[in-house]
Description:
Elements lengths: L1 H6 L1 H20 L5 H8 L3 H29 L1 H25 L2 H29 L5 H30 L4 H19 L7 H5 L4 H5 L2 H21 L2 H8 L4 H26 L5 H21 L3 H15 L2 H12 L4 H29 L4 H5 L4 H13 L9
Amino acid sequence: MIDKIKNSYEHTIYACYIGYITQAIVNNFAPLLFLTFIADYSLTLSQVAVITSVNFFVQLCVDLLSSKFIDKIGYRKSVIAAHIMSAAGIAGLAMLPQIMNAYAGIIISVVIYAVGGGIIEVLISPIVEACPTERKEAAMSVLHSFYCWGQVAVVLLSTVFFKIFGIENWKILAFVWAVIPLLNAAYFAAVPIYSVSEQRGTASVKSLVTNRLFLLLVLLMTAAGASEMAMSQWASAFAESGLGVSKAVGDLAGPCAFAALMGTARALYGKFSDKVKLERFMLVSAMLCAACYIAAAVSKNPVIALIGCAVCGFSVGIFWPGTFSIAAKRMPSGGTAMYALLALAGDLGCSCAPAAVGFAADRLGGNLNLALLAGAVFPLLIIGAIAVLSVKNADKIN
């Protein structure tokens, strides 16, 4: 069995799937506790908005630096360290607020797991891209669907835990979630790993940032991260406070349904990628995304607003893996630097968009409904970027 793991790229892909489940825990466990943090630690909406921003800002910084150090350290050592730090940060949420200033303890924990999450985000896609698989676009979409299934698991199992044991015991659950990245670190220590840089070489950061096609992909990835996280990170609080439903209903109808439909979109594209043009699918998805933000923000009917939140998950599903696939196809020599900078762009969108919604809600007297309306701007940017990519001879943009 051990020999099979050491010599099978299937196990490499399985470890990458779990890596994205770890990423889902890193990004989605704390937001389920936003209102609990406000009640238990006397935090404000702006302070909990900063929690998300710190997470993605740190991941952004890691993305920026990783293009320099990951190739030197090696993929295996980097991805193992990333999982260990993710586990330490998740467990730290339960421990550090008890032994120091609560808000400072939360922020320190977030910084620790964000470093791990940032490295995971940079490495997992190129590790799978380097595996000898066919239909690369489909493989990438299926890979990214596991982030969604991880998010569903985090929301669903956390909701069941809170219902049975009470929200006050959330610290125990933090330790449970921390076990997953620890086990996957051991898994990554055994599986074979081959890097895209070894296969195809790697472009310099300078050559990338002076390439107009790459800059267009950066815009696309930034808007992709913003479109996803502006809704995802606030869906639970929006459903509970903005629509007046219970926490259990809010979590299941908001972030859980969002993630399930996002994963469904990615799995469907993975199955039918040979029959559907990627850019066209992304364009239609962006139009649907804008409509969902508007429906969630302005509808007076809670059911329609919740449907808008959920369907938004389906609409954003293809944005992130689709951008990676376009980049891999049109810039095959981009290497680790390309993946790192695209992850940086995505995390920039992930960092700024939820914070903008939180600060807007504070300015609007806590009205998350109207604050979410600004989120419609992000899919409109995607529509513009896809339109440029789809013009005749777009491959020749440089």
